[in-house]
Design brief:
By secondary structure, the protein is of the alpha+beta class. The chain has 2 helices and 3 strands, in the order αβαββ. The longest helix has 5 residues. The protein starts with a helix and ends in an 11-residue tail after the last strand.
Amino acid sequence: MWSDVSPLSFRRLPAARPADITIGFYTFNHTDCWFSPLHPCFDGLNGELAHAFLPPLGEIHFDNHEFWILGRSR
């Protein structure tokens, strides 16, 4: 995964503990697109696949309308 190709380490934390980076899958209209002209809402299939924010916000958003796979097969 990402830790194999970066100097970062990843671990799952309980929901009550704050994390440096949170990762989630979102649909068209999610909160950051309401406030930022730099990050429009997701556009459905194709187009924008994901966007991210550096800490302290530290969020990675993936477009939930895309076809995501784990590994190399479909």
